[in-house]
Amino acid sequence: MSPTAAPLVMDDLDRAVDAVLDRVSGDIVLGIPLGIGKPNPFVNALYRRLKAQDTRRLRIVTALSLEKPVGKSELERHFLAPLVERVFADYPDLDYVKDSRAGTLPAHIEVREFFLKTGDYLGNAAAQQGYISTNYTFVARDMALQGMNVIAQAVASDGEGAHWQLSLSSNPDLTFEIAERYAAQGLPLLKVGVVNQRMPFMPNHAEVGPDFFDIVVTDPRGTHELFAPPNGKVSTADYAIGLHASSLVRDGGTLQIGIGSLGDAIAQALILRERQGADYRRILTTLCPDGLDGRETGRFEQGLYGCSEMFVNGFLQLMEAGIVRREVFDDAVLQELINAGRIPDLAVTPDTLRALQAAGRIDSPLRQRDLEFLGRFGILKAGLRREGHELVDGDTRLRNDLDDADAFEAICSAWLGTRLAHGVFMTGGFFLGPGDFYERLRHLPRSRLAKIDMTRIDFINQLYGQHRGEMELKRAQRRQASFINTTMMVTLLGAAVSDGLESGQVVSGVGGQYNFVAMAHALPDARSILMLRATHEHRDGLKSSIVWSYGHATIPRHLRDIVITEYGVADLRGQSDGDVVKRLICIADSRFQDELIRAAQSHGKLEAGWQVPEAHRHNLPATLDSRLHPWSEAGALPDFPFGTDLTADELHIVRALKRLKKATEHPVDLVRLALKALWENREAPPAYLQRLGLDEATDFKQLFIRKLFAGNL
User: Where does the Acetyl-CoA hydrolase/transferase C-terminal domain start and stop, copy by copy (predicted)?
Assistant: First the structure.
């Protein structure tokens, strides 16, 4: 970014709010990043100031506003209180989130989000009406359309004085594009950076000078713990899905995955494939009744390049396991030569110079821009300059002529590098993860951290770009890409439902899912992989996640590609509707297959008399458990492959509470559990009862819950 005037550096949040209100006349439209990039203390200070007066309106435009968990029931609240205090420490909740959930947002304040915390705002009228449905790559444009005049972001800080640098850290995803759009249109935009010393300092494209901002706030109150959702348990179904997905990832390719237990399952499966190949293949064989043809089961000799809008803990685990290590370079011609094997092992040799010259990337004699390019990537010594017909470095002068054999040999002898420099093997737009994920980022050696490039979402989530050669660069970097995303439901004709219900209620948001699906179809060797669990709990009982039709779609059927459930892989690309129907039924839960067959036949999409092949007639949780349980017992598929913030006792309590909660949603199950608990007359450990506030239960309801809880341990 081009430098602006020196920023106003302020060491007090309240005075920073004063400065914003003084510099912006009229209503405030505040843009803040999604996830952990929000400067919560500053946002709260501004919100409280404007909430107390109704002379100026406030509109907040953002996404993924995070809040510490509090629990919906008394049991959950008792259980969560010490866990939240331990894990989230001094993380400050956002006041506007609290008021939005309580339905108490003032009339002159509104919140508009383009991605909601999953499932948290169902039935919340203000949040549902304020939701903006858009693809991630259009968010910067759409935030501008909301009239945004202030953007505020939490930043990391490094150095001091003339060496003081800031980093957009977790969220360079939209800020640069927004600033550029406003500058190009001549629109006013006040940029506020709030230093949070707990933010990892990310280099490369996330790094900026303080003068990028108009106001930089250094108040220690801006520093707080980052929102750190604990790792979730990876279930048997999650592992089955992750194992299938991992067998579609090609060595030397590109990987995109998301957060949560399915992302962890894929990462663990890839590590298993790398480190315990024989076991990996045996496990996969039990899950694949049609054999392993077309599956990838070998080690990662070349490694993977991570390119994902979300840089998650799973990627860091894969980096540490040596799997995500394929370096890419910010030059299309150089990257294409690497892909073609012209620069083996990224080693710089005289042939490297010859290959670049033959490709037209450098000239002879070398121009100044050629010297800058060659110096940047470690091909020639950095800092060489031209003087007339010579190249100069200190007292050394050599003839600038690559076509002359003697001059070429002299240049190589004096200044040729040994290995390409400034490659990265992870590109991300924002990050979110457990506490130890942030801690490891904060302590990574600078050389290792430089291999991670947090950058703009308009670079990551699409192929086209504003700069010449950008599409060619992306296509060269993202070879053999596996773009793996999660969805909620899939119709038998291949449409995917990922963000909303047919009632119009928004569960989460489109985010970048459409972008990656479309990109998978635009790249010649990429695949879009959508994962879902074959069934889901509903208030009316268990339902199939593969359905005949649904009144909402996130991904249209014409972009269908690969779909995975715990029961297998359905490759839908280029297939007829009839074959798509058959392939999806074969990976559906067997309790719903006959119903799906009847629906497809009644609508003329499946021939009469078709039957599910015998190999796919046993798609049941018990069958799956019998296949994977031995491997869980052997430690290959642990519940928490990358650790957990919960203690052993807390995990024991959680399992019992989940069983109890599930039973309360189904009266028959509740009666059965109650009778079992009364018959067995078990008692829970006193420490567990105290944790849940049941140690001094006196009324019938508390005593009954106490007995049910003990019976579920």
Answer: 436-600
